[in-house]
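quick one, 183 residues, struct below
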Amino acid sequence: MYKVTTVELTRDCLVVQIPHGTAVTLSKGASVDITQTLGGSYTIHAQGGLFRVASADADALGLQTTASAPRPVSSDQRAQVDDNRIWEILRTCYDPEIPVNIVDLGLVYDLQTTKLPGGDRRVEVKMTLTAPGCGMGTVIAGDAQQKLLGLEGVADAQVDIVWDPPWHQSMITAEGRRILGLE
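---
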């Protein structure tokens, strides 16, 4: 279990309310509890609710921002972008309420890559959510898309949310089940 850390916001911070997916601003000086730090984003408890803080706003929590500058890409590196690397990147995306990545939760249903002229790739992902009413779907899909676009050799990425087949706990991988204590 993650140790909860209480901090004061060092500046106003745009956050996303969980599970509604609504963007709100928390004010500088607000006391917040950091409850989850996975995949570069943060889940905090503040004002009686849960919120997701993007990695670019880690400084508002008094933490170092994890964003890095893009690196030049050679044609050899572009050729190295494969499905395994893409799956690895998707494993850094988390539902802010569940400490298991979207791959091990069984949310990613399909992954397709297409080689583009010039050697870069287009990545298309079909994923679902644990519940159809989850307002965080666009946030999670957007996080996955941004991480894919940050991968060397990926020029275009699309992440679509689908509902067929409906998600069920049986889709969680053995690793996900272990993390959740379902074994």
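The beta strands are 5-8, 13-18, 23-26, 31-38, 41-46, 49-53, 108-115, 121-127, 154-161.
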